[in-house]
């Protein structure tokens, strides 16, 4: 069992993951949206006040120069008690706009956008974190390491984000993470059911598989076309190889749809060129055989 308890124990367990996939926290979407809605209402109020001041200024010709000339506005405000109330209201509104617009509303928008772009944790990692949040005894009894509201911060999966998600999210990488041979280091003896592996090993395995698949599709297709002589069979082989190639890209990479279309079209073009040149040679040989004399010409 860990030598520390409470929050220190949780921090120690989560930090033990060398890939930092266990850095999972709540993002409080509802509270963030509440904050933006309130700030937005405050901005709308400032907008309405500004329009009211503009309408009032349009009715008073003596204020037109002050509101069109920044230096005149500053000079008027510098008069202190002698400053006209309309000018003082305008300057106060300008300061409120700076505070709310730059320091609060827009920064909140940018931060909320960044939080919204964070990815959710994988179920595999989330299950491990939930397991680490509890003590497991030999008699099968279990109790939480944290009490109060903190004990259930991993319950709402939709409101969780991971600070360092896995670099590759393709189907092959996900499959290897689920079935890779895992080890239980001595540092994790308090969690005998938690296996560990290094993400870099998964990345190397995926890279090696990608290279092997690419070689098979290129070299294998050429060897197949070399031994197959029937034209219709070659066309069927082009279709099969192209479909298999597109499927492999979708499974072992995170390519976008446009990238899958482009790479598949390029691969199909290579196959067509190879088969076309072979068909041209076959047709040329057939024509030469047709025109070759078969007997004496008298």
From TrEMBL:
> InterPro entries in the record, alphabetically?
DUF6594 (IPR046529)
Membrane-traversing stretches: 205-228, 234-253, 260-280
Species this protein is from: Canariomyces notabilis
Residues of the DUF6594 domain: 11-272
**Protein name, per record:** DUF6594 domain-containing protein
PANTHER family cross-referenced by the UniProt entry: DUF6594 DOMAIN-CONTAINING PROTEIN (PTHR34502:SF4), DUF6594 DOMAIN-CONTAINING PROTEIN-RELATED (PTHR34502)
Q: Does the keyword Transmembrane helix apply?
A: yes
Lineage, uppermost ranks:
Eukaryota, Fungi, Dikarya, Ascomycota, Pezizomycotina
Q: Which keywords fit this entry according to its UniProt record?
A: Membrane, Transmembrane, Transmembrane helix
The answer on whether this UniProt entry bears the keyword Ribonucleoprotein reads no
Query: Can you tell which superkingdom this protein's organism belongs to?
Result: Eukaryota
